[in-house]
C-alpha cells in the first residue's frame, strides 16, 4: 500500500518538476550540446551546404595568435574589474552591515543594489553620455580646474573598466553584505575586549569569515566580464576589440558559426577552468 | 581615531558609492530634458525628445513588443518555477542536489555563450530567429530566479499545516491551492517581478535571437547607439530605467532580498 502511495507521489513530483526542467533542457542544455557539435563542423549543416567533421576551428585558435592575445586581454579585463569591484565594494558592504543601523540600513541597502536590477545596456549608455568629449564629466572638470585639461575618457580602456565596475559592483556588495551580516557582533566584541587591535580583528576575524561572500561575488563578476562584448563596443569604440566582440562578429557579421562555436567553447573551458582553480578556495571558505 | 569618526567616514564613503552608482543615470535622465541635440550645456529645459519619442513608431513597436514578451515570459516562468519549487520542497526526490545544481548554468554561464548556443540550436531544429525563440530563451533565464525566490519563501512554510489540511480530508490539489500557495504568495509575486525584470532588461539573448527589424527595445537601443546617439535614446532609456527600478522596488517589498524577516 505504501509503495503505491510513493508511486503516486513520484508521479506528482514528476508532473510538477517536468515543465521547468524540460524547458531548461530544451533552451539551455541541448543548445550547449548543439554548440559543441557545431564547433567540429566545417560549415553549417543546413541551407544545403557541404560539411564534414573537422578540427580546423580549434586549429584556427591555436594557429592565429590574435585569438589567444584577445582571450588574454579579456581575462585581464576580468581580473582588473573583479579586483577593483572587490576593493571598492567590500568596505561599502562593511559599512552597511556593521556601521549603519536600523531602518536606514534597509533603505540604503536597497538603494545600493537597485541599479543591479535595471537595464545594463542603459547604464553603459549613461556612461557614454558622461564620458564623451565635451560631455558632462569633461565640462565639470574644465569648470572646476583653472587650466584646460580636455578630459576625454571615451573610447579608452579606462572607460570600459569604469562602465563594467559600475555594472557589476552591486554583486560583490550584495554577497559580502550577506556574509558580513552573518558574523555575530559579540565575536567582534570578544576579540576587542581581549585586546585585539582593529587591524588584527579585520585580518584574523572579519576577512576569513566574510571570505565566502567575497569569493562568490568575485566569481559572479569575473565570469560575465570575460564574456562581455556590448560594454567594450559602446565604451571602447574601435579600441574595444575583445574576445567577446570577436565571438559576436562570428555570429552577426562574418557568419562563421562553427568558428564562433569553437571560440565560445574555448571561453567556456577557460571560465570553468578558472572556477575549478578557485574551487579549493571556495570550499575552504565555505566550510 | 575614535569610533564615531570612523563611522562618519564610513557613511561618507557610502555616499560616494551611491553617487558613483546614480550620478551617470541621473545625468543621462537630465540630458533627455535638455533642448540641445548635441548634449550641449548650459541646460535648457525641453520635452521635445519625449514628444519625438511618442511619434517614433519603430521605438513604440519595439517597446510594446518588449512589454508583452515580458508578460508572457513572466506567466510561463512563474507557473513552471513555482511548480518545481513546490515539488523540490515537498517531495524527497532522488538526485535533488543535481536538480538544484542544474539551475546555475543559465545564471552562471556568460550570456554570450548561452545566447549564441541558443541561436545555433534554434536554427538547427528549423525554428530560427524570431519572437518565439526570444520567449523560449527568456523563460529559461528567468526560471532559476523564480525557483530561488519561491524556494526561499517556502523555507519559512510550516509543513505541519499541509499535514493538518490533509488529515482533515483535503486532497493534494486542494492542499496546494488553499494552504501552500496562499502562504508563499509574496514569494510568487516577487519571483514574477524578477522574471519580468529579467526579460524586460535582457539584451544579449534577445540580440542573438530576435529577427532584425523585429526586435525588442534594448536591441533597438544598442543598434541606435552604435549609429550615434541622440537625446531620443536618453528619453527612452530614462523611461526604461525608471520603470525597471519601480518594479524592483515593489519586488523588494515582497522578497526582502538579504533582509531578515
Description of the structure:
Chain A has 12 helices and no strands. Chain A has 287 residues and is mainly α. Chain A has one domain: MetI-like fold (Orthogonal Bundle). In chain A, helix 2 crosses helix 12 (257-286), helix 5 (120-131) packs across helix 7 and helix 9 (198-226) packs antiparallel against helix 12 (257-286). Chain B is an all-alpha fold. Chain B has one domain: MetI-like (MetI-like fold, Orthogonal Bundle). Chain B is 77% helix and 0% strand. In chain B, helix 3 crosses helix 7 and helix 7 (131-154) packs across helix 9. Chain B is globular and about 70 Å long. Chain B starts with a helix and ends in a 6-residue tail after the last helix. At the A-B interface, helix 1, helix 3, helix 4, helix 5 and helix 7 of A face helix 1, helix 3, helix 5, helix 6 and helix 7 of B. Chain A: Keywords: Cell membrane, Membrane, Transmembrane, Transmembrane helix, Transport. Chain A: The chain crosses the membrane at residues 21-41, 77-96, 108-130, 159-180, 201-223, 257-278. Chain A: It is a multi-pass membrane protein. Chain A: Its main location: membrane. Chain A: It comes from Aliigemmobacter aestuarii.
Task: Give the topology, please.
The complex is a heterodimer of chains A (287) and B (261).
Chain A: H1 2-38, H2 56-63, H3 65-99, H4 103-113, H5 120-131, H6 136-144, H7 157-181, H8 185-193, H9 198-226, H10 230-236, H11 243-252, H12 257-286
Helix pairs in contact in A: 2-12, 3-7, 3-9, 5-7, 5-10, 7-9, 7-10, 8-9, 9-12, 11-12
Chain B: H1 3-31, H2 48-55, H3 57-90, H4 96-101, H5 104-108, H6 111-124, H7 131-154, H8 159-167, H9 172-201, H10 204-209, H11 217-227, H12 231-255
Helix pairs in contact in B: 1-12, 2-12, 3-7, 3-9, 7-9, 8-9, 9-12
